[in-house]
Design a protein that fits this description.
With 397 residues, the chain is of the alpha+beta class. Helix content is 32%, strand content 22%. The protein contains ten helices and 18 strands. Helix 1 packs across helix 6 (143-151) and helix 9 packs antiparallel against helix 10. The longest helix has 24 residues, at 155-178.
C-alpha cells in the first residue's frame, strides 16, 4: 500500500505534463474475472461498475457499489469512497461537477497493453453515464500518462525488482546442479516450479511455460515453447528462460550452459562464436540505453551487431519493461514493426527498468539465450542482474 500511495502521488505530479486534469484510472466491473492492468493503483478487486478518479491536485475519489464500499475504505488509499446502490451516474457526475476538469483521461491505448485498461463495453457505459453533461466530450486517452506512471519506477519498486532478480539467480545456481545427461526438459521444469512454490513465490508468466527450457537442437523457430520430453545429452546447449514474482514484482532472465562431450575441454567454435555475438549484442544495446533515446535506436545497435557477426536478423525486440509483470508496459526496445505499435518511439527515461535479451539458434547444438535486467539512470544504464559473461560449461557425469 505504501508503494501504491506513492504511485498515486507520482501520477498526480505527471498529469499536467500529459494534459490531463482528471484521470479515471479504472472504470471497470468484476475485475476478479476480468483483470485490469491498472489494478495495482486501485488496491483491490471490485464487483460492480466502479470509477476510481484522481484529480490533478492529488485529491482522489472511489465510486463503488455499496457492497464494495467497506473493503475500499479499509485500504486507506482513497481520500473519499462513495457507495451507490442503483447507478454510479449521480456520484460520478457530482464529482466531475465539483472538480470541473477540462480534460478527463480514460485509461486506453492502441499500443501499450498495460495502459489499455477500460473495455469497449465499459467505455460505452461511461459515455452513457455522462450523456447530457459537458463531460462526455471531454474524455481523452490517458494511455501515455498510464504508461509513464507504470514505467517510471520509484526507488522502492527498483529494490523490489532487484529482490526478485536475486532469488531468480539463486534458482539458476540450483539448476546448474541438476543438469546432467538424461534429464528431460519437463523434469527440470517441475523441479524448478516446486522450488518456487516452496519459497512462497509466484510465476512472472503462465506456469506451463515457466521456465521455458530448451535442450539441444530445435526443429521449431525460436520463441515461447512448452518444455517436453527432450533429454539433455553431451554436445547439447541447455537454455533456460525464467521469471519469478516476489512480493508483487517480477524478474525475467535467461541463462545458457553447454554440456561437454567426452574428450572436450571447451565448447565447439561455432557455439563460442554464437555466445560471443549474443553477449556483444547485449553490450551494444546497453551502450546506447540512456534517457532521451527512442527504443528503436537501442534495438538497432543490438540488431546491427548480430547481423555484422554473420547471424540472421533477430525476429524479436531487444528489450521490454519489467516490473509487476515480466512484460510490463510503455516503451519497447524494438524495431518499428507494426506488431509493436508506437511503443518503439517512446523516449527512454531515467528509472525505467528493462529486460535486455538476445537469442540465437546454433544448428546442431541448440539455443543460446541471454537476458538481463537493467535500470536506466541519468547518463546511461546499469545491470540490476549479474550478467552472464561466459558460456557455462558442464562436465558429463
Amino acid at each position: 500500500m505504501d508503494i501504491t500511495r506513492a504511485k498515486l502521488r507520482q501520477a498526480a505530479e505527471l498529469m499536467q505534463k500529459h494534459g490531463v486534469d482528471c484521470w479515471i484510472i479504472e472504470f471497470a466491473r468484476e475485475t476478479g474475472n476480468h483483470s485490469d492492468p491498472l489494478a495495482y493503483l486501485v488496491g483491490a478487486q471490485i464487483t460492480w461498475p466502479s470509477a476510481f478518479l484522481l484529480n490533478h491536485d492529488g485529491r482522489s475519489v472511489a465510486i463503488v457499489g455499496s457492497g464494495d464500499k467497506g473493503q475500499i475504505e479499509g485500504l486507506g488509499l482513497w481520500d473519499e469512497v462513495r457507495g451507490y446502490v442503483a447507478s454510479p451516474r449521480d456520484e460520478l457526475v457530482n464529482v466531475l461537477r465539483s472538480w470541473d476538469p477540462g480534460r478527463i483521461g480514460v485509461t486506453w491505448s492502441d499500443s501499450d497493453s498495460m495502459s489499455d485498461g477500460i473495455t469497449y463495453g465499459m467505455y460505452k457505459m461511461l459515455e452513457s453515464l455522462l450523456d447530457r453533461t459537458p463531460y462526455k466530450e471531454r474524455l481523452v486517452s490517458a494511455g501515455e500518462l498510464a504508461g509513464e506512471v507504470r514505467s517510471r519506477k520509484l526507488p522502492d519498486e527498483i529494490e523490489a525488482i532487484h529482490t526478485a532478480i536475486s532469488f531468480t539467480e539463486q534458482v539458476f545456481q540450483r539448476i546448474a546442479t541438476q543438469l546432467k545427461p538424461g534429464l528431460t526438459e519437463i523434469q527440470l521444469q517441475k523441479s524448478v516450479q516446486s522450488w518456487i512454490r516452496e519459497a512462497g513465490h509466484g510465476f512472472a508468466w503462465e506456469d506451463r511455460m515457466n521456465p521455458i527450457i530448451d535442450f539441444g537442437p530445435k526443429s521449431e523457430p525460436l520463441g515461447h515453447s512448452i518444455p517436453g520430453e527432450t533429454k539433455l545429452e553431451p554436445g547439447h546447449l541447455a537454455h533456460v528462460d525464467l521469471g519469478i514474482t516476489v512480493d508483487g514484482f517480477s524478474s525475467d532472465l535467461q541463462r545458457t550452459w553447454y554440456l561437454l562431450r567426452d574428450g572436450e575441454t571447451d565448447a565447439p567454435d561455432e557455439v563460442k562464436k554464437a555466445f560471443t555475438a549474443t553477449r556483444q549484442a547485449i553490450d551494444a544495446g546497453m551502450a546506447v540505453l540512456k534517457p532521451g533515446k527512442a527504443g528503436h535506436e537501442v534495438d538497432a545497435e543490438s540488431r546491427r551487431t548480430i547481423i555484422e557477426a554473420g547471424f540472421p536478423e533477430p525476429q524479436f525486440a531487444f528489450g521490454h519493461h519489467v516490473g509487476r509483470v515480466a512484460h510490463d508496459g510503455a516503451g519497447t526496445l524494438g524495431p518499428r514493426w507494426e506488431r509493436y505499435g508506437k511503443t518503439p518511439e517512446i523516449p527512454i527515461q531515467a528509472d525505467n527498468v528493462f529486460a535486455v535479451e538476445m537469442d540465437l539458434d546454433v544448428p546442431g547444438y541448440g539455443v543460446i539465450g541471454l537476458e538481463e535486467e537493467a535500470v536506466v539512470e541519468g547518463h546511461g544504464a546499469r545491470f540490476l542482474s549479474n550478467p552472464q559473461r561466459e558460456l557455462w560449461l558442464l562436465k558429463p557425469r
